[in-house]
């Protein structure tokens, strides 16, 4: 427990210096009182600290969660209480939050209500990893307001920040509640796929183009073919974990947003009946996982993606995509989460994707940077704003030329607003499946 002066005491001490000089110059006869007054101020501060509320009777209660999805905000109530009879009317609180939880907000000044000091910590994680709430620093003033009393409370709360599994479950529930998800509900598999399922007796509600004339002639009765969505497609989630993927986008790293989108797509694909495998690279490939199947394989997919971390290395698309092309023999839908700065840095990536697209269906997920768009559309106020808008426009045009080149090579390009990235990827996957392109 530490005791130190408040601004009020420091101001009194600062004012005492010119007063003492004035007394010494204009009234030297009363100079003997100056040390006495200074001594009284010192004694008053000492007594204020002595009779201040006692810190040994301070307790702090907070029930922080053990895990938290990245990007989510959880309200955690906390209470500080003095068990001794001397209690302050106002305390100031500072929590020792780790880097991962540094964006969390909470009230810094707490007023006593019903004998306790209560507040709510808006706990928010900006990156995956281990977040710590190491300590709480509480201070209060003495009754005269001349000194602060500060006490450090050891909390040692550790929170594991994972991909936002709860958000994936919510979005997946919303998607699977729609009637246009192919292959999820039995009644929606009819007439909407490419795989022959069974014969059924024809009635007027069916499309006459589904009539199987050979079987109808053999049974002397009209029969129609029933189709369902083709299953057992192969999906590869390829992650670039290089330097650019560690840059923040709307408060979260690009890699964290890509992992969330991959989990949502993986859950949908496994639910429908397709296979999903993961691949990751930076300066070289370092993660190749076997394919998982069935909805029970989602747990394995979750652990695989949770282990991915961004690195400060530059990405080597040529080596990584060549290795991926060699390891994946069966035609697959390869979804590449990556980013680039300009045409020059994208040349090797475009060439590698061209070779990969000759064998597989490739979906390149582009991260739309709202900051660049804002620089282009914001009305200029200063000359620097014009320069920023010109460079932003040039960067945007270069990216569009790269996207156009990828589309000419047969690569699907998806660029959507940040908040719609995950659901847009799932919608694109379902559209490709419906069009029999997988």
UniProtKB/TrEMBL annotation:
SUPFAM superfamilies from the UniProt entry: vWA-like (SSF53300)
Stored InterPro entries: DUF58, vWFA_dom_sf
Highest taxon of source: Bacteria
Domain DUF58: 199-386
Protein name per UniProt: DUF58 domain-containing protein
